[in-house]
Amino acid sequence: MRPAPIAGPGRGGRLDMDDHGKHHDRANRPAASLRAVEAGAALLFFALGLVVIYDSVRLGARWVDDGPQAGYFPFYIGLLLCAGSASVLFGALGDASKRGKVFVTRGGLRQVLTLVVPAIVYVGLIGWLGIYVSSALFIAFFMWWLGRYPVLKIVPVSVGVVGTLFVLLDLWFKVPLPKGPLEAALGLN
Amino acid sequence: MEELNALMHGFGVALTPFNLVLMLVGVVLGVLIGVLPGLGGANGVAILLPLTFSMPPTSAIIMLSCIYWGALFGGAITSILFNIPGEPWSVATTFDGYPMAQKGQAGAALTASFTASFFGALIAIVMITFVSPMIASFALQFGPAEYFAVYFLTFCAFVGMSKGQGLKTIVSTMIGFALASVGLDTVTGQLRLTFGYVSLLQGFDFLIAVIGLFGIGEILLTLEEGLSFRGAKPRMNLKVVLETWRELPRFWLTALRSAAVGCFMGIVPGGATPASFMAYGVAKRTSPSGAKFGTGEIEGVVAPEVANNSAGTSALLPMLTLGVPGSPTAAVLLGGLLIWGLQPGPLLFQEQPDFVWGLIASMYLGNLAALVVVLTMVPFFAAILRIPFAIIGPVIMVVCAIGAYTVHNSMFDVWLMLLFGVAGYVMRKLDYPLAPLVLALVLGDRTESAFRQAMLLSQGSVTIFFSNALVGAITTLALAMLFWPLLSGAMRRLRAA
Questions:
Q1: Do residue A96 and residue A54 come from a single domain?
Q2: Could you say which DSSP state residue A63 is in?
């Protein structure tokens, strides 16, 4: 399903979730509670600390004849990371003021995912189509999906932006960026 | 007046036609970056850094620092016209700037804010001109222990000023240090935290982290909050500018006070954002019209704008003299110096006087250029803000991806940028400060090597950090900052009891 247009033409640049009250209620329902995400993040950081400690001990985190070993400094970093995130975790679980608070609503999460998912596809396409073609497709997709622009506007804007970038980066600054079959066909490699 | 001679020499270095063009380009790009969501001083400079690798270092830093000045100026435009701060340090500017715009005084508010920004920056640059050579020559006596103490103080200052998020600041800092230690350990030649992955051999580049955390993270926040850019149309003309200028000298005391707050907060890595809030608070308490603050008082625009620009500018002082950046953008500039093969720190003043004084001279010129650019081009920048997000959002995303790729010509970095983007979004929403993470990532290696060398000198005893008056004083100050949240909390409880 395509979401309601965001800041599209004739919308006065407004970002409306949905115009209908029913949909609005659903969009405002929580997707994740603040405490759950807070605890999840703290656990993740704690795990990161454990990984750092583990690797530091593997390398040697002690003092030897010629000075500190490679893991000496990171060991304490990991230790502090674990201690800090554990305190954040217990603080978050014990903090009554955070109870019932929402980290992100369903509507908000959907907005965020409308960028994250196409962005993942976009980065995946770069290796295959080159950065210029995938960028044009990405911009065009967004204008169509979020802005509901007509094709007559989408094509000039996306091609124009990417064309400007190409002239600036490839021809002027000579920055080597990944290219794909289109550039090869046009002899621009 | 040795400094004045050096400065004049610097003007000679900076005043070439090529550098002047770069200055103007930098300022315009900077203002643009400052007004667009998802692009800010730090990641804007990070994205453009690879483009400057082929330039002479002095020209490169002139352009990049001008982007920074532009961003410092530009943040106010969205605050005043749209009630949306383009940069975190312009939040306080919305308090009185937006009400002024609603009353039809957008032109006056913008003029006041730009002039105040220029004044703040000017005070900070004068301070840099005269104070930095002293600090640099003082810092020549620093050994590894002193350096570690200074780094330690930098990170403790973040904790001390974190306003109730001390633990999260520590976690953020440690994540930065942990990421910095990934890759080849230069002392022992061993691989750390790579777990056999070839992509991790090089470690995490802070430029990627900056582009992801600040760029992508910010776009995600903007999307979720559903920001709408609907605001006042600026009416700027010479008459409004001159009328406002006639009014401004009345606020000289507020401006000076705010500049003092800004300079102090910029050197101590507190940053421009708290400085602007502090200056606003001080002005509100001391001004005779303080009760009317928040309803559109011109003084309420002047105070935060003077402070954030003087803080943002003076953040370069510790970067140049000690190699310790005072803000994320200064950290990116520091990374640039390292890439160009310059070692920031006290020796820079002796070994690269052309570079240092060229940069300082360019600060005067760049800020003047920024003032002219923003005063004349406000309608243009406001028009850019009216481009719908469905167009500008993906364009910013594309620019970020290109910026991330060009750092090492690696697709792995682009994926990393996305990962950092999502992490930045979540961490921002959970009130984890991102600036200490970036600073720790930049300073990680230097901090560790200073620590190792100091410990080697003392054969593993931490008493070396108290071995003389200087290092002892810095360490004690750092510890006081670190435990300040606990101390102030305990004092408050005592007083309440």
A1: yes
A2: E
A84 to B228: CB separation less than 8 angstroms, yes or no: no
Listed residues A53, A82, A100: the one ending a domain: A100
Domain count, chain A: 2
A58 vs A18, residue with greater confidence: A58
Tell whether the model's pLDDT for residue A19 goes beyond 50.
no
**Bridge partners (DSSP) listed for residue B192:** B183
Residues of A whose CB is below 8 A from B390: 5-8, 142-143, 145-147, 149
Instruction: Pick the residue from chain A with its C-alpha nearest to B186.
Output: A70
Smallest Cα distance from B374 to chain A, Å: 24
The one-letter code for the residue type at B420 is F
Q: Which residue has the tokens 């100091």?
A: B454
ipTM: 0.86
In DSSP terms, B333 is beta-bridged to none
Give the residues of chain B that fall short of pLDDT 70.
1, 37-38, 86-87, 227-234, 269-271
Name the pTM for this structure. 0.85
Q: Do B401 and A123 touch (CB under 8 A)?
A: yes
Out of A100, A121, A141, a domain closes at: A100
Domain ranges of chain B: 2-492
Q: Judge whether A69 lies within some domain.
A: yes
Residues 6+ apart with CB under 8 A from A45: A81, A84, A85, A88, B171, B175
Residues A86 and A111 in one domain: no
Residue B64 near residue B49, CB atoms below 8 Å: yes
- What residue numbers bound the domain in which A51 lies? 31-100
Q: Which residue is listed with tokens 């230690």?
A: B181
